[in-house]
């Protein structure tokens, strides 16, 4: 299985608070975790570091070949839920880190099935012969207001586009979205933080990634986001299916 990941601090931040973990669990299975931290001077980096490691470690300990779909779902959701508890408890230990949190996308790819757990506004996409589709939903104020009838052109949406409504570690409990879908051979799973998606259209993502060498595609995406301003940390993970 071919995979790659890259993270970059961007052009304006003094610290990279994004984290990723990527591994091949066996010849047919890969796992990826991408987190984008938030809160406090150092809190975001702490939160994303704790969450990415906690989710990754739980997947590595729990995954077994031949797991039923509902077992995979339980594993991914429980991994993110456990990370939420760990980050929240850590935030309560130090006042300066109170309220820290992180987005999280955790994915397992096995024998043509893609399973994804998600909290926040980092995203997962599937790219195949039919085009590109966003798997995850953004947990943002903008998406909430749009769902409740506010026009996409309203200026309030522009001002609040990066305000998230759900994150790992901010509250004692968290709701985790879960998605499962079949993927054709040759498809690519793309997971990334908003430091990339704030600059890239779906068409650009597709033309850059699909059927391109993965490492070259990851580098090109990072470079493009930096050329467009690089106002946030940028993280990309790619798995060829």
Structure notes:
By secondary structure, the chain is an alpha+beta fold. The protein has a single domain (3-240), classed as Phosphatase 2c, domain 1. The protein is built from seven helices and eleven strands. The protein has helices spanning 43-62, 69-93, 141-147, 155-159, 194-197, 202-209, 214-227; strands spanning 3-8, 18-26, 29-38, 101-102, 104-110, 113-119, 123-128, 131-134, 177-182, 188-192, 234-240. The model has no long low-confidence stretch (mean pLDDT 93).
Helix-strand layout with pairing:
Blueprint: E1 3-8, E2 18-26, E3 29-38, H1 43-62, H2 69-93, E4 101-102, E5 104-110, E6 113-119, E7 123-128, E8 131-134, H3 141-147, H4 155-159, E9 177-182, E10 188-192, H5 194-197, H6 202-209, H7 214-227, E11 234-240
Antiparallel strand pairs: 1-11, 2-3, 3-4, 3-5, 5-6, 6-9, 7-8, 7-10, 10-11
Helix pairs in contact: 1-2
List keywords for this structure.
7 helices, alpha+beta, 11 strands, single chain, Phosphatase 2c, domain 1, 29% strand, 5-stranded antiparallel sheet, 241 residues, globular
Briefly, what is this?
By secondary structure, this protein is of the alpha+beta class.
Q: Averaging pLDDT over every residue, what do you get?
A: 93
Structural class: alpha+beta
Q: Specify the CATH homologous superfamily.
A: PPM-type phosphatase domain
Number of helices: 7
Give the strand content. 25-35%
């Amino acid at each position: 299985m071919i995979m790659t990941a890259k993270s970059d601090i961007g052009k304006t931040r003094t610290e990279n608070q994004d984290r990723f973990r990527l591994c091949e669990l066996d010849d047919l299975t890969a796992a990826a975790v991408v987190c984008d931290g938030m809160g406090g001077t150092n809190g975001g980096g702490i939160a994303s570091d704790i969450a990415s490691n906690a989710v990754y470690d739980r997947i590595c300990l729990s995954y077994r070949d031949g797991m039923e779909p509902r077992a995979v779902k339980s594993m991914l959701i429980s991994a993110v839920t456990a990370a939420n508890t760990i980050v929240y408890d850590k935030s309560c230990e130090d006042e300066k880190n109170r309220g820290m949190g992180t987005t999280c996308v955790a994915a397992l790819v096995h024998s043509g099935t893609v399973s994804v757990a998600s909290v926040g506004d980092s995203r997962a996409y599937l790219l195949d012969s039919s085009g590109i589709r966003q798997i995850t939903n953004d947990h943002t104020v903008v998406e909430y207001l749009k769902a409740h009838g506010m026009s996409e052109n309203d200026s309030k949406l522009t001002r609040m586009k990066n305000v998230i409504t759900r994150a790992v570690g901010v509250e004692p409990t968290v709701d985790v979205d879960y998605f499962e879908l079949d993927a054709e051979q040759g498809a690519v799973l793309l997971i990334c933080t908003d430091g990339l998606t704030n600059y890239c259209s779906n068409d650009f993502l597709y033309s850059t990634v699909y059927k391109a060498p993965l490492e070259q595609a990851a580098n090109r995406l990072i470079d493009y986001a930096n050329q467009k301003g690089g106002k946030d940390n940028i993280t990309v993970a790619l798995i060829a299916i």
